[in-house]
Amino acid sequence: MSTSYVHLNVQNKVGYIEFYNPPHNGLPAAMLSNLTDLITQAGSDPTIAVIVLQSGGDRTFCAGASFEELRAISNLQEGTDFFKGFANVINALRNCPKITIGRVQGKAVGGGVGLAAATDYCMATSHSDIKLSELSIGIGPFVIEPAVTRKIGISAFSQLSLEATTFFSAQWAQDNGLYTKVFPSIDVLDTEVKAFAEQLCTTYNPEALQKLKSTFWEGTQHWGELLNERAAISGQLVLSEFTKSQLK
């Protein structure tokens, strides 16, 4: 595969939202916007009971922000708008009335960790190491912090964000609550994701699932404003001389 895409495929009442942007599934603004729209669309589609968020390819799940677009940012508004893209995807997952399942087949970096954390239940392979590399390029994981901290706690988030050049193992991510289950291969992961998603669709009361989803996200009603404020922080820092030199 060599063509970027974001698409929705519905099978047995499960909506599979997949993004792909070679070589490492870094996300430009347009794809972040498309992801937000598809999550919102799937959330209101009566033929879909559960949503799976996944990426294409057999390697990196998501490398976070597109460095090409980060390099092109020239003013605060452009920077803020770019990072709002991640804020919008996280808030779309949070506001979606359907249970969302993350399917992480490979490494997740930066914003990719945020996407995984914003799903309600995340499954991965043993190759799905994680890293928050933002500090190493002069910014920080500000937009995704609420979602990540909500899953792994402030102590683990502090370690992950300050050790910005270190990949933490999939086992570490599971032990700290980001991944619910870790499997030895993509084939096993896909089998388990499909079985679990379809079980949710066929076994449980949809109304109960929707109310449970609301319970999962209690106390986050202010995230619309909060994540936009965080986007402005990142939008300012990406203009710094330090960051520009690191992105060359």
Q: How would you describe this structure to a colleague?
A:
This protein is of the alpha/beta class and 248 residues long. The protein has a single domain (5-187, 218-247), classed as 2-enoyl-CoA Hydratase, Chain A, domain 1 (Alpha-Beta Complex). The protein has ten helices and eight strands. The chain has helices spanning 29-44, 67-72, 76-95, 111-118, 145-162, 170-175, 186-203, 206-216, 223-237, 241-247; strands at 5-11, 14-20, 50-55, 99-104, 108-109, 121-125, 130-131, 181-183. The strands form two sheets. Strands 1-2-3-4-6-8 form a six-stranded mixed beta sheet, with helices on both faces. The radius of gyration is 17 Å and the shape is globular. The two termini are 27 Å apart. The mean pLDDT is 97.
Main features:
alpha/beta, single chain, 248 residues
Instruction: Tally the beta strands.
Output: 8
Average of pLDDT: 97
CATH superfamily: 2-enoyl-CoA Hydratase, Chain A, domain 1
- Can you identify the CATH class? Alpha Beta
Task: Please give the radius of gyration in angstroms.
Answer: 17 Å
CATH architecture: Alpha-Beta Complex
Helical content band: 40-55%
Residue fraction in strands: 15-25%
Number of helices: 10
Uncertain ranges: none
The shape is globular
Number of domains in the coordinates? Answer: 1
| H and E string | EEHEHHEEHEEHHEHHHH
CATH fold name, please? 2-enoyl-CoA Hydratase, Chain A, domain 1
Could you give the distance between the termini?
27 Å
Largest sheet: 6 strands, mixed
Strand order of the largest sheet: 1-2-3-4-6-8
Instruction: Give the structural class.
Output: alpha/beta
